């Protein structure tokens, strides 16, 4: 049997995804002492993992180099790609927020400048509100943009709220809830249907039972 190739998002989501997959009976033991390795093949089951950046999960799945991807809904909302979204894994929970310094006035109708890693979601959000804004794309550490006068406010994901708090920013609006999703490539769903649905069944069971912490 050909291994099921799973693209995992590196970083924060990785640990929770590995815990969930382990609880669903998937051998993730080779990820325990991974050092700087990025590809892992189970010796016990036909399954392999790659660790990649969130947005690259979509690319690997789209091109069929991974069968399955585990990635945040933020990335799915921001990018247009070709995949099936199969399951809300209920991990990596956070939300999209509009945030700024305490003196920001969201009701001020002056044209605002918004810094964000998510220009498409931000544009859509303000379009729906009927507000014309200037969007500045930032790749990370978005919280400093209002502090340095680059933008009036930011749109970013907030998980614990610690980054906002430690930089003196406050939330003005919670926009959308986010959690990690399991996505499947179109070719993979045809070629590895049984393996994929078995995995989804196991994961659904774990999620339903709320076994994980
Ligand atoms: C994300 C996000 C916030 C932070 C929120 O950044 O962009 O900066 O996490 O998390 P918190 O509410 O738990 O503090 P990430 O850590 O991915 O780093 P980045 O800024 O380099 O993208």
Q: What's the quick description here?
A:
The protein is an alpha/beta fold and 213 residues long. Helices cover 32% and strands 28% of the residues. The protein has a six-stranded mixed sheet with strand order 2-3-1-4-11-5, with helices on both faces.
Task: List its salient traits.
elongated; D-Maltodextrin-Binding Protein, domain 2; five-stranded mixed beta sheet; alpha/beta; six-stranded mixed beta sheet; 213 residues; 8 helices; binds 1-O-pyrophosphono-5-O-phosphono-alpha-D-ribofuranose; single chain
Secondary-structure map:
Elements: E1 4-9, H1 12-23, E2 39-41, E3 47-52, H2 54-62, E4 68-72, H3 73-78, E5 84-88, E6 94-100, E7 113-116, H4 119-128, E8 134-137, H5 144-147, E9 153-158, H6 162-166, E10 170-178, E11 180-184, H7 186-191, H8 193-209
Parallel strand pairs: 1-3, 1-4, 7-8, 7-9
Antiparallel strand pairs: 2-3, 4-11, 5-11, 6-9, 6-10
The structure holds 1-O-pyrophosphono-5-O-phosphono-alpha-D-ribofuranose.
